[in-house]
């Protein structure tokens, strides 16, 4: 029996009962609620991994329940149940971070597949969280070690300050005063003949009885008076010395030390003795070596982590990144995460890094980023606080895992359900329009009313065009339809296609200019798919001029010319334009800048059609300045087979 829990929310008792039994057969622990209010109460004691909820319910519908869950329990994944007519609500649920939606009646295989995808996503989040916690613990341990090293260095500085005070008490060393025996340092007194005349107990324990030996004898790399040791240099210069040296024990063991010497003058002002206080650096050296090794291991772990990692400051600037981040994004250090990831000028909404700075908790979000090569990736972003020794949050670490392939498969399956669920609604509306057009056509023919016949004919042509476009969209995306090419005159084809949009442009009061020569030679294309693709760009151009500014005359231009073995087509407008983030996403499935007026399918399929012909497309656009699409098509189609998004399709 699985430990995974599911809450089922639906106002239909029969569906709760039978679907609940199905979920238990899948191995889940199941609790049910008849509406959103009851579900929120149930969450106080029952903590599910997944919530499956109907959209339309009394008291609190599924959308409001989804928003409430994501606000207080963002880790819980939500799958929406929807009827065929709930297209807008289904899209809204996805925008509010629903994991998936399933159309009614619920198919057991579809439900099981959806649950498996969502559980895979949950397991991935758990793994990322565990990795974050382990990494944070490692950082804390190494920070503590660095603090300890700083204390060691501070001790060395204190010893240096003590030296001056000890210079007035040289006679206490010679008399083996207990004060010097208690010091955690190696203390010795040297005369002007470079002889050791006194030592403290610790030096005697470490180096043996060296009183009477030459000053340079205790150093491992000094072999004679000519090779000046710190004591000799103090006598020569009259100034105290500070240096890193190595002492040698009776057994030949080397001890790294930091030596501090101070001259002790006689009554006549001449240097009579030199006080040598040396700090044993053995432990500090060991800690330094260990720290360097740990830093090296940490850096390798940091660089080889299979995700993008960045350390960010409160002002969104990036302080550190791993190698994978550097490879895919331009000069990120010192820049902002939103400019590196998305080429934005302002921070992202619901930024997890800033949320972590505010409450000290880890946060997550899903987003789309663009690499320096223009590649778009779906990312699961996770933030974690980095604290100093006092528990204050100084920086935040952000880890982003590439879930593009998972999201691509999920989006494709979701889109197929969306298409199948909405197809009947769309066809019904078109059939109604066809009925109306046929009625008006028959009426006009009976009454011999040419105006009525002309209007009815336009309506029928418009509806037939919509039916054709809908069928082509479904064929291209759902079945990955292969193109069927024929050789035709490029000029006539492009002029005829451009003419299809003239009526719509005139209705929108937009100037429409066609600059296409009749003689452009022949081209090998799939006429139906290419015509639909170009019409998509032209219709978008009209829509971009749909909200005119006062005193601005809007225009659309389509032109074509020969370039060697290619034909260049340009479609430009002076409408609303696009920012960089929108330009980078316009060919992404289901992305639309039109809100509810667009489905986000048209330009995706248009781009796919051009790529299938071996063509290329580029876009230039600025907000409120307009947009220009440049399409290059080879005269002979270089047919490229589109990969099937999912083996189950």
Give an account of the 3D structure.
The chain is of the alpha+beta class. 45% of the residues lie in helices and 23% in strands. The strands form five sheets. A five-stranded parallel β-sheet has the order 2-1-3-4-5, sandwiched between helices. It has a five-stranded antiparallel β-sheet with strand order 7-6-10-9-8, sandwiched between helices. The longest helix is centred in the N-terminal third of the chain and has 59 residues, at 108-166. The model is unreliable at 158-169 and 643-649 (pLDDT under 50).
Give me some keywords for this one.
single chain, 649 residues, alpha+beta, five-stranded parallel sheet, five-stranded antiparallel sheet, 22 strands, 45% helix, elongated
- Record the strand order, biggest sheet: 2-1-3-4-5
**Residue fraction in strands:** 15-25%
Strands, total number: 22
Regarding quaternary structure, what we see is single chain
């Amino acid at each position: 029996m699985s430990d995974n829990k599911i809450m089922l929310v639906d106002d239909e008792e029969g569906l709760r009962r039978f679907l609940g039994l199905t979920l238990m057969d899948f191995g889940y622990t199941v609790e049910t609620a008849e509406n959103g209010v009851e579900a929120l109460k149930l969450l106080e004691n029952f903590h599910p991994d997944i919530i499956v909820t109907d959209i339309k319910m009394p008291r609190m519908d599924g959308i409001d329940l989804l928003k409430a869950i994501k606000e207080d329990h963002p880790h819980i994944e939500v799958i929406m149940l929807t009827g065929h007519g709930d297209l807008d609500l289904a899209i809204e649920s996805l925008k509010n971070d629903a994991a998936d939606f399933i159309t009614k009646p619920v198919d057991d295989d579809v439900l099981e597949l959806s649950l498996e995808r969502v559980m895979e996503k949950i397991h991935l989040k758990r793994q990322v969280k565990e990795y974050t916690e382990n990494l944070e613990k490692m950082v804390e341990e190494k920070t503590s070690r660095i603090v300890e090293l700083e204390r060691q260095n501070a001790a060395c500085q204190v010893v240096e300050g003590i030296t001056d005070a000890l210079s007035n008490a040289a006679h206490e060393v010679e008399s083996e005063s207990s004060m010097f025996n208690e010091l955690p340092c190696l203390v010795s007194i040297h005369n002007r003949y470079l002889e050791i005349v006194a030592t403290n107990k610790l030096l005697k324990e470490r180096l043996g009885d060296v009183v009477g030996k030459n000053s340079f004898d205790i150093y491992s790399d000094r072999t004679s008076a000519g090779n000046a040791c710190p004591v000799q240099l103090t006598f020569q210069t009259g100034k105290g010395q500070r240096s890193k040296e190595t002492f040698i024990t009776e057994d030949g063991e080397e001890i790294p030390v930091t030596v501090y010497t101070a001259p002790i003058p006689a009554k006549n002002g001449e240097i009579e003795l030199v006080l040598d206080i040396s700090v044993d650096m053995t432990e500090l050296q060991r800690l330094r070596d260990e720290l360097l090794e740990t830093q090296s291991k940490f850096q390798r772990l940091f660089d080889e982590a299979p995700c993008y990692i960045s350390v960010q400051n409160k002002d969104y600037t990036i302080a550190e990144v791993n190698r994978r981040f550097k490879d895919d994004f331009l000069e990120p250090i010192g820049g902002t995460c939103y400019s590196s990831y998305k080429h934005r000028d302002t921070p992202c909404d619901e930024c997890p890094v800033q949320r972590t700075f505010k409450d000290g908790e880890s946060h997550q979000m899903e987003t789309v980023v663009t690499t320096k090569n223009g590649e778009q990736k779906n990312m699961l972003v996770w933030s974690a606080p980095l604290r100093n020794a006092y528990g204050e949050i100084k920086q935040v670490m952000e880890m982003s895992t590439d879930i593009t392939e998972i999201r691509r498969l999920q989006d494709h399956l979701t889109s197929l359900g969306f298409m199948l669920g909405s197809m009947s609604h769309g066809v019904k509306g078109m059939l109604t329009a066809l009925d109306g057009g046929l009625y008006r056509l028959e009426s006009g023919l009976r009454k011999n009313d040419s105006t009525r016949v002309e209007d009815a004919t336009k309506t029928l042509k418009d509806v037939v065009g919509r039916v054709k476009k809908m069928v082509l969209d479904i064929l291209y995306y759902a079945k990955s339809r292969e193109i069927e090419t024929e050789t035709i005159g490029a000029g006539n084809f492009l002029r005829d296609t451009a003419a299809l949009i003239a009526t719509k442009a005139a209705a929108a009061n937009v100037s429409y200019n066609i600059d296409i020569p009749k003689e452009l030679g022949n081209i090998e294309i799939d006429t139906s798919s290419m015509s639909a693709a170009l019409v998509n760009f032209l219709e978008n151009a009209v829509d971009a001029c749909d909200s005119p500014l006062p005193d601005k005359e809007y225009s659309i231009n389509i032109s074509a010319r020969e370039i060697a073995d290619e034909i260049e087509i340009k479609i430009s407008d002076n409408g609303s334009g696009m920012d960089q983030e929108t330009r980078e996403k316009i060919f992404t499935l289901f992305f639309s800048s039109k809100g509810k007026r667009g489905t986000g399918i048209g330009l995706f399929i248009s781009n796919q059609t051009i790529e299938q012909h071996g063509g290329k497309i580029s876009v230039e656009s600025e907000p409120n300045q307009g947009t220009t699409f440049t399409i290059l098509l080879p005269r002979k189609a270089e047919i490229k087979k589109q990969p099937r998004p999912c083996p189950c399709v």
